[in-house]
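Input (structure):
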């Protein structure tokens, strides 16, 4: 073998690549006759390249989309949204408050007896409002007692119901997260006060209370435009304790973790520790 060629030891074909790299003497000979050692090639992949870190949000979304019940629920919710918000755009023969005044006719049958002879009298009565009409071509689900199309009313009613439901859930979540986070982080007297308030609110019967409040609002002639929103606010006010208890339990566990000790050592403010480090990890 020529001296200018690379010198390498013999190795068997069945040796693994890792053993060859560790035992081989990689020495190259340059054109000037100087032996230059060649560094072994590191084929090991760093550990952080093999591990995929997932954020809490991504973990929740992954678990959500793998659940069959969750997918069924989101499909039903999407169908309700499409029906309520896009339905009036596609189906619009009648408006939300448009009354059918075609005046469907009715026939009244009455028996009249004159001189021992019975006669049957049939009267045709015309109505100005087509109330309580049966389902048909002009009204898919018929009309109500005021002559309004039931199918159209369902679509517009779905808009209001979905809007109020989402706003109520958002308000309940905000109140529960804030109050539960404060109670779990501070503990002591603050925790006792907030939890006693939760106990009192949870003892109140929600449905009878809502009926009473609705009657009071109606008796005071509250405008209809604000009536439903006031009920939504009252419902949110009496429904946040459940969320607060869940958040408090998680905060009590998370505040003892190592990253919270590090945040305390870094001198972060209480607001930052609660809303940036604790609540996102619930």
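Output (sequence):
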């Amino acid at each position: 073998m020529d001296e200018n060629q690379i010198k390498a030891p013999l190795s068997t074909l069945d040796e693994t690549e890792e053993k060859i790299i560790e035992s081989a003497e990689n020495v190259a000979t340059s054109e000037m006759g100087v032996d230059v050692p060649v560094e072994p090639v590191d084929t090991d992949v760093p550990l952080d390249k093999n591990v995929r870190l997932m954020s809490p949000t991504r973990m929740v979304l992954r678990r959500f989309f793998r659940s069959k019940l969750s997918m069924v629920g989101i499909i039903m919710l999407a169908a309700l949204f499409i029906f309520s918000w896009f339905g009036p755009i596609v189906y619009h023969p009648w408006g939300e408050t448009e009354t059918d005044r075609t005046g469907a006719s009715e026939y009244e049958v009455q028996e009249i007896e004159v001189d021992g002879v019975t006669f049957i009298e049939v009267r045709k009565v015309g109505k100005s409002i087509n109330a309580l009409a049966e389902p048909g071509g002009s009204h898919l689900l018929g009309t109500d007692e005021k002559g309004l199309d039931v199918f159209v009313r369902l679509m517009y009613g779905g808009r209001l119901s979905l809007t109020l439901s989402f706003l109520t859930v958002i308000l309940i979540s905000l109140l529960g997260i804030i109050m539960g986070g404060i109670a779990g982080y501070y503990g002591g007297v603050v925790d006792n006060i907030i939890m006693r308030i939760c106990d009192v609110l949870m003892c109140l019967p929600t449905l009878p209370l809502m009926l009473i409040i609705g009657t009071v609002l109606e008796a005071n002639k509250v405008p209809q435009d604000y009536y439903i929103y006031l009920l939504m606010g009252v419902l949110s006010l009496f429904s946040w304790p459940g969320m607060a208890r869940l958040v408090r339990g998680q905060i009590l566990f998370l505040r003892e973790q190592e990253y919270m000790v590090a945040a305390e050592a870094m001198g972060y403010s209480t607001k930052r520790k609660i809303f940036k480090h604790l609540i996102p990890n619930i």
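Notes: Residues 1-36 have pLDDT under 50 and may be disordered. The chain has four domains: 1-42, 57-90, 98-148, 151-281.
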